[in-house]
Amino acid sequence: MRLVELNEVNFDLVSKYIDNGANLPFFSSLLSEHGYAETYNGVQDDYLEPWIQWPSFHLGLTPKDHGMFHLGDSPVDDPEQIFEMAEQYGHKVGVLSAMGASNRLVSPAFFVPDPWSGATPDESRFCTELAKVLERSVNSNAQSKLLLKDLVWLSFQLFLATNVKEKYEFVRECTNFFANRTKKWKKAILLDRILIFFFQKLMTDRSATFGTLFLNGVAHIQHHHMLESSLFDGDADLYDEDPILSCYQCYDSMLDRLCTKYPEWVIATGLSQKPITNKVYFYRLDDHSRFLTSIGLINCDVQPLMSRDFWIHFKSELEAKAAIKTISRVKSADGQDVFGNFSIKANSLFVSLIFHDEITEKSTFLLDRDVIDLFSMVSFVAIKNSGHADRGYVFYSEKGKAKNTNRTSLIELRGILLEKLQFAVK
Prior knowledge:
By secondary structure, the chain is an alpha/beta fold. It contains 14 helices and 17 strands. It is globular and about 65 Å long. The two termini are 14 Å apart.
């Protein structure tokens, strides 16, 4: 069985594109022949984050019970994930990039952690290196760049693993990526295309019977470009194409190739998104250590997370508490907070860059009366087009199985999947 965690895809928008005549044959088949069940989380809006809800699905626990509220958090008391339970049922289990998952498998077919968790990959050289490449790639998302050494490594691995037809397809897709570098969403699509290929190969080469693949490209693109969609009267001419439709068409083709090869699969989105009409700017620090030094925090280590978030590791909880007071003093000229969402865990401090107005060369930021050149220390990530919504979707390989099904919580969905896994080995 293959579990595809297709994070936050809006199938309501997919359906509208299909109604408008868009060519999305696999998604059309999902919606009309397979049908879907809606999922929900039933939590307050503050908990509608993928790094909170996917662990709830993996663990069968509410956010308050598993205690994972930030990227990189580990669950309280090490409860069993769906992956260990599948292994206990007799499955050979593979995991690629499942959000918040820890490697507690006795004998994994393969395990590559998500790029933000810092979890341990399996001991194979390939998965260890792939984990490093993914982590560096995600942390460079603000610049939409891939490091040269990572491009070389990925190209070499693809060359070794592909047949002539697949080599041609990847050359064509890479050429398209480099020819359209101003269309930043192309990087996310290309990376997920590579993940799908490696997932398929690892499942086959290592004889896995249950595999989980997490794909975040669509969520990333929707957050940044939803309002540029033709469905929202967006300015698709800005890129000579509709970014959201272009994205859906790519994933329609990729998932078609992934799912039609296997008799049993489940596709779940966990969440979806809703449009935001007011302009919300997102930035991330380029050099976290440089910024911290500029405000006098020097005896600490930094762990960058997704876009605006980061952890600061101190030698004591007392130092972490003192750092909150220092960072809180950084303000815009009109008195707005620049950093917030503070949270202390042991000796570490979680911080978010929460300033959402545009940052330009003329913007002024202060630490008390001292001017801070924040403009030179940040990269523009995006104007956020959408926020998270509780509604999710799940599709099954059995046609019609999900039709007329009641809404299901993510925790209940975990139970359904475990039943399928248990039955599959009988």
